[in-house]
Predict the structure of Metalloprotease.
Amino acid sequence: MRWRGREQSTNVEDRRRSGGRVAVAGGGLGLIIIAILYALLGGNPQRVLQQQQQVAVQAPGEQQELTPEEKERGEFASVVLRDTEEVWSQLFQENGLRYEPPKMVLFSGSIRSACGGATAASGPFYCPADQKVYLDTSFFTQLARDLQAPGDFAQAYVIAHEVGHHVQNLLGQTEVVDQIRRTRRPEEANAASVRLELQADFYAGCMLHHAQRMKQIIEPGDVEEALRAATAIGDDRLQAKSQGYIVPESFTHGTSEQRLRWFTKGLETGDLSQGDTFSATQL
């Protein structure tokens, strides 16, 4: 992906220099596994943490200098965030709307958001309450090592997906799903969550489509990187890898095939009118 030397966003809060330690009540490795399965790439990991009665607390620590690799990851995330700002500002304007970009918080180890506390193991997430995307950039290593989805375009997909949740929040789609979660049976709530996540995948593809049109950012092999990432984080694949079997009614993000399909549709068309996952009869 062509990103070096390009404009960075001014909406980044880099908190990685502040050292911190996490106190977690119970759970241990089990919490990490649950968080990876249900919170990776979209949604709010605090729901899982709260259900397991976990408490994550960020304690002050020594100041830490960023390594050259960490600095580069922060610059990359800032460039991608700037791409999302330009693309979504244009798309909103074309539809008679005004886009208010989210803040991105870069953290290391643990963080406390308006949605509660989380650790790096929870994965990237968007918090509607403060309209911020939270990202521990060490997740990119996990994406490559544990999920076999390396590459900067795969990382751009992760960021674009989380910003897609911000777009949903601005358009009122998040509140609709939250209402379903509060009032319906768990199976119905999970089904609504899947549609929300698949639409965020579509929005991610759509954003990258327009970023390519505007800036020619894609290099050979980039699309394949993003497609591997979309495939790697399907509920079916994550559950099968973790527990050896799948429970479809517990899915909250969609299968690998579904995530790949909706991301690809957005990437190929860039047409927002084709991203209504809530009305789709087939996902």
In short: The first strand starts at residue 12 and ends at 14. The two ends are 29 Å apart (CA to CA). The chain has one domain: 12-274.
